[in-house]
Amino acid sequence: MPIIGICGGTASGKSTIARNIKNLFSEKEAVIILSDSYYKDHSSFDFDSRSKINFDHPDSIDFKFLIKNLIKLKSNKIVNEPIYSYKTHRRLKKTKKTFPKHFIILEGLHIFCNKDLIKLIDYGLFLDLDSEIRFQRRLERDIKERGRKPEEVNERFFNMCEPMYDRFIYPSRINADKILDMKSVKFKEIKKLLSEFI
User: Fold this and answer.
1) Residue 150 to residue 78: CA distance in whole angstroms
2) Whole-angstrom Cα distance, residue 70 to residue 3?
3) More reliable by pLDDT, 132 or 27
4) Which of 99, 122, 139, 154 is most exposed by smallest CB count within 10 Å?
C-alpha cells in the first residue's frame, strides 16, 4: 500500500493536489490522510489558550499516533482517525472510521519533519509557492471558512506560520522526491510523476 506524501507551506495547494490525485482513482482505491488531524489533543485548554498554541511547529503533531495508524492501514486494518476542528483549535471527541485502500495520500505541513514518517512515504511532493500568494490565500480561506478576523490571520501568519516555514517546513523539502513550482506546474505533470502508482 504505497503512501504518496504532499507537503508545502500553508495555503500552498496541498489539499487541492491531494483531492485531484484521489480523483484519479476509484473511491475504493485511495484515501486521503491529513496530518492536521493528528495535532496533539489540547481540548482541556480553554479557547484563548488554544489560540496561542503554535500549530506550525512540528512538535504540535502527534507523530507516534499518526505513524501507528498509517502502519495499521498498511497492514489492512481499519483505524479510528481523529477529527480536528480549525474553528475551535481542538481535537473533537468523535472520530472517523478510515478503511484501508490501495493507496494512501498523506498531506500536511510537517510530514517531512519526522524521520520515522519519512521512511513510510513512498513518493513525496513538495509544493513551492511564495509567501505573498500563500498569505492572500490563507487570509481569504480563514476568514471565509474558519471564522477568523483579518488581524488574527495576519498576526498568526507572520508571527508563527512564516517563521516555522523558514525554520522547518522549507528546509524539509530535501526529503521530497520532487519539488513543484506551484506558479507554473500543470496537474498532468504531477500525474506523470506518479505514473508508477496510478
Assistant:
1) 40
2) 9
3) 132
4) 99
Residues 1, 74 contacting (CB under 8 angstroms): yes
Question: How far apart, in whole angstroms, are the C-alpha atoms of residue 47 and residue 28?
Answer: 38
Asked whether the CA dihedral 144, 127, 52, 166 is positive or negative, the reply is: negative
pLDDT tens readout for residues 74-90: 999 999 999 998 888 88
d(CA 115, CA 26): 31
pTM (2 decimals)? 0.90
Task: End-to-end CA distance of the chain: give it in Å, rounded.
Answer: 12
The cell 481540548 sits on which residue?
Answer: 43
What is the DSSP track for 76-115? T--EEEEEEETTTTEEEEEEEEE---SEEEEE-TTTTS-H
DSSP state of 55: T
How would DSSP label each residue in 156-174?
Answer: HIIIIIHHHIIIIITGGGG
* E strand or H helix that includes residue 156: helix 150-156
